[in-house]
Specification:
The termini are far apart. By secondary structure, the protein is an alpha/beta fold. The chain is about 35% helix and about 20% strand. Helix 1 packs antiparallel against helix 2, helix 1 runs parallel beside helix 3 and helix 2 runs antiparallel to helix 3. It has a 5-stranded mixed β-barrel with strand order 2-3-4-6-5. Strand 1, helix 4 and strand 2 form a beta-alpha-beta unit.
Length: about 270
Amino acid sequence: MGVRVYDQHSSGYQQPYGYGQGGYPTYAPPPVAPRTSGLAVASLVFGILWICGVGSFVAIICGHMAISNIRTTRAGGKGLAVAGLVLGYLGIASISLFFIISAAGPGSTGTDSAAVATEASSSEDGDAEDEPAPAPSPKKPVFKTEDYKQLSTRGFAKLTKDPDAYAGEHFILYGEVTQFDAATGADGFLADTGPTKQQPAYGIVNFGQNAAYVGSKSRLADVVEDDLFQAYVTVVDSYSYETQIGGNTTVPRFKVDRIKVYGSTK
């Protein structure tokens, strides 16, 4: 069988690819991987970090810049840029939601509190109108000895003649307790009284005028029948009572503001 010889320059033969001059093989350089965009990486990093919302803004800015750069330079990292954008927008959304809740929360609470306070105030005002205000307690008068006058015999006679005309006036009187028992009670007694101090002579004094004295139980606690006393009194009025022997009598009545026992007829 015959051998067919081909000329390398003939149309039926082509030199194999990869062989250079002299028949030595040549090799094509390996493909180079596209460079990853630094902006895409930055977008993803700041989207993850968030940094109180600041990172989200940076992630969005870097992400858009990275996508624009990748389109023109055909660099890699588009997926990183998209991920950074998603995280950035999620961060912005979370910040917006937080501010909306914060703004709505205190406002509604304050409104409710104001309404409750208004209702409480109205209720208190209503109660205040329904209930009368308590009357102020009267001030206790201050005892001053200079407010009490010493009477002359004539002045005392005028007083006993018309006690009601002297009601509320203050005097210094003396006397002897003639009755202080269950009949008179612990807050009052009967006495012979006068404007001057007397000492007993043979157990006898002569004040001459019968009178009724009233006072607090504590103030009269140490006073008993037959005591001789000095009293700072306020004129009350005329007082009528039934005597032990029958019949009625009217005498001056005095309120005891201070009393001092200085002797006794016993």
